[in-house]
Amino acid sequence: MQIQRIQTLWLFLAFACALTSWFFPWLHLEVSSIDFYPWGNIFMAILAGLATLLPFVAIFMFRNLRRQKLSCSLGAFMALFSLGYVVALCWLGPDPNGSVCVTAPLLMACSGLFDVLARNAITSDEKLLKSADRLR
Q1: Annotated domain spans of the chain
Q2: Which residue has the higher pLDDT, 96 or 25?
Q3: CB 30 within 8 A of CB 100
Q4: C-alpha span between 17 and 37 (Å, rounded)
Q5: Hey, what's the torsion of the CAs at 46, 51, 26, 94, to 10 degrees?
Q6: d(Cα 11, Cα 111) in Å, to the nearest integer?
Q7: What kind and span of H or E run contains 27?
Q8: So what's the pLDDT on residue 32?
Q9: Nearest Cα to 55, choosing from 110, 2, 124, 105?
Q10: In whole angstroms, what is the distance from residue 44 CA to residue 21 CA?
Q11: pLDDT score of 30 more than 80
Q12: Of 75, 46, 45, which Cα lies nearest the Cα of 58?
């Protein structure tokens, strides 16, 4: 079996990073020694869940490039929005000096980056298909 398109690899890496981020704490409050996981906050769980699910679903949308590109864009938006939400919690939380962002936001940022790379690969595939149709 051979991967035909590079966006499949980028989407799988985005899915793997987003899924891995669920197993690491997003925020550590040093004062109370509490770790913040996405399932502890419903808004964070929805954002992280969509950022995890969208790249996985986009892998199987290879027949419709427009939907695949839309799914990549939404996945990147959700990943970066969840990252921004955690950074805002870190700065504006109960104790801004005692909270530290940890490994999971970095993984979610990588997931957003891989979503953007997949979207760029889909755009180049669309250009290639248009040029091949023009030659027929």
Answers
A1: 19-124
A2: 25
A3: yes
A4: 15
A5: -50
A6: 9
A7: strand 27-29
A8: 59
A9: 110
A10: 12
A11: no
A12: 75
Average pLDDT for 106-112:
89
Which carries the bigger pLDDT value, residue 29 or residue 129? 129
Quick one: DSSP state of residue 36?
A: E
3-state secondary structure the chain: CCCCCHHHHHHHHHHHHHHHHCCCCCEEECCCCEEECHHHCHHHHHHHHHHHHHHHHHHCCCCCHHHHHHHHHHHHHHHHHHHHHHHHHHHHCCCHHHEEECHHHHHHHHHHHHHHHHHHHHHHHHHHHHHHHHHC
Give me 6's structure tokens.
Answer: 């590079």
Which amino acid would we find at residue 120? N
Give the sheet arrangement for strand 27-29, strand by strand. 34-36, 27-29, 99-101
Contacts of 19 (CB under 8 A, 6+ apart): 52
Distance between CA atoms of 23 and 103, rounded to whole angstroms? 10
Block residue for tokens 């987003």:
18
